[in-house]
Write a structure and sequence with these properties.
With about 475 residues, this protein is α+β, with helices and mostly antiparallel strands. Helices cover about 20% and strands about 40% of the residues. It is built from 9 helices and 20 strands. A hairpin with a 4-residue loop joins strand 13 and strand 14.
């Protein structure tokens, strides 16, 4: 058995070992490369490799079908049988699974299922690293310090089932976060990018933007809490709307537990959420934001089901022309709620806005605030999806179309659903990195939003 080492071979062997009524095996082969820097100098770099195997066993019984899920890392051929048996034991010890469905069938096999996993390496930074070094030199000459990190991960997922599925998906994920600070640390600015391969990341352009922001911060203006016309950049819009998507399970809405529940019963599907013709959508084939074209579920939850593994994904409009069009459902929750099947997809795009850039929106602002990003976002009230959080790394005062200084940070209290209803302008959609959720979700494209009365509920002393 020691010769069984390739990912597809491990999947096939685990399926052969299964004694359950049904079996799903997911092998995730992951490689990653990273760079870190501080004070205009590289500090660390590294490359890692890893394997995680998830076995899902299903057992039929007189009261229904039970499931058991066991995941382990660094799995070798000798670990396979104990892992499969553990999943089967977990299924037999569990009660009937509420989300039980027949395993997905009749999906054409991936032609590269038996190929070796894709791998990243430090070579992904071949062009980026020298450009970063040049940015260090410019920052040093300009009296600012650069801090940050670049991370690239490539995950090859192999999915096999006892129902005959043999699917494979390679997912590259790259993130760059760059901070510029004044030598006395009193001023800080941030920029981030999401990328598939670091070929579309320009450190020089990012450093130039950060230098401008540090210059804005040389003048300090103290403002009290209150409601201000506010320009939310794409990264902040992404953080808010990703949380909205995570909170849009169809079953929860139908059972009266979320902001998408209709008073008196049912859901708010068909209701207008925004007066702007905005469309919030996901598409596994979205150029530059490609994600898995089929369901990959390592566990079951409100918006996922292990029984749906391998289910093909299609372009989905969650909001169309301002109206709520879809809520997240599994096959099971779709049956309960009589809603269309609409699984989660690994990207999120908001479009339908105008063509103006954020800079052009600033130029059209008489008086308002320009944010850099949001962080420490937490839910306050699921019934309204009220969120709280903090601004970070630069809030700027705009007067007569120009940035005139930096103001203090704030705590905010806002619902992304309410923001959509109050937004008076959306700019040009562009790829962005959601700063708060970048550990979990990176593939997003958003416009900047103008909100006439964003609620800055209190002053924050953070930088």
């Amino acid at each position: 058995m020691s010769r069984v080492s390739k990912p597809y071979e491990i999947v096939e062997r685990a399926l052969e070992l299964s004694r359950a009524d049904g079996c799903v095996v997911i092998a995730d082969e992951e490689s990653s490369a990273n760079l870190r820097w501080a004070g205009n100098a590289l500090t660390t770099n590294g490359v890692t490799r890893g394997r995680t195997l998830t076995v899902i066993a299903t057992v039929d019984g007189s009261e229904g079908t039970a499931s058991g899920v066991v995941s382990r890392s660094a799995v070798t051929a000798e670990d396979l049988e104990p892992l499969v048996r553990a999943a089967e034991e977990a299924a037999r010890a569990a009660g009937p699974a509420e989300d039980a469905q027949p395993l997905v069938r009749d999906v054409p096999a991936s032609p590269d299922f038996t190929d070796a996993p894709a791998e990243t390496s430090s070579a992904v930074f071949a062009d980026f690293a020298p450009a970063l070094g040049e940015a260090f030199a410019r920052a040093r000459a300009g009296g600012r310090e650069l801090y940050g990190f670049a991370h690239h991960r490539l995950t090859s997922t192999y999915l096999g089932t006892s129902a005959g599925l043999r699917l494979r998906h390679d997912q590259p994920t790259g993130t760059l976060e760059l901070n510029a600070k004044s030598p006395d640390r009193s001023r800080s600015a941030w920029a981030g990018r999401s990328t598939r391969d670091f070929k579309d990341v320009d450190p020089a352009a990012l450093d130039a933007d950060l230098a401008t922001r540090l210059g804005w911060a040389e003048r300090r203006v103290e403002l009290p809490a209150g409601r201000y016309e506010t320009l939310l950049p794409p990264t902040a819009v992404a953080d808010l709307l990703i949380y909205q998507m995570w909170s849009s399970a169809g079953r929860d809405a139908a059972e009266g537990r979320t902001v998408f529940s209709k008073p008196g019963g049912g859901t708010r599907l068909g209701e207008t959420l925004s007066p702007l013709p905005l469309t919030l959508r996901s598409d596994p084939n979205e150029p530059g934001l490609e994600s898995a074209p089929f369901v990959i579920a390592h566990s079951s939850g409100d918006d996922s089901s292990v029984f749906d593994n391998g289910l093909p994904l299609a372009p989905t409009e969650w909001v169309r022309d301002g109206k709520l069009e879809r809520l997240i459902t599994t096959r099971h929750s779709a049956g309960l709620t009589r809603l269309p099947v609409a699984p989660t997809i690994g990207n999120l795009v908001l479009d339908g806005g105008g063509e103006r850039s954020l800079e052009e929106m600033v130029a059209a602002t008489e008086r308002g605030l320009l944010l850099t990003c949001l962080w420490y976002i937490r839910e306050v009230d699921p019934a309204t999806l009220l969120l709280t959080g903090l601004t970070r790394d630069g809030v700027y005062l705009v007067e007569n179309g120009e940035v005139v200084g930096e103001v203090n940070n704030f705590r905010f209290n806002e619902s992304p659903v309410d923001l959509l209803s109050r937004a008076s302008e959306a700019g040009r959609t562009e790829k962005t990195l959601p700063r708060e959720w970048s550990d979990w979700f990176t593939r997003a494209a958003m416009p900047a939003l103008r909100v006439p009365d964003f609620n800055m509920s209190s002053v924050s002393q953070g930088v």
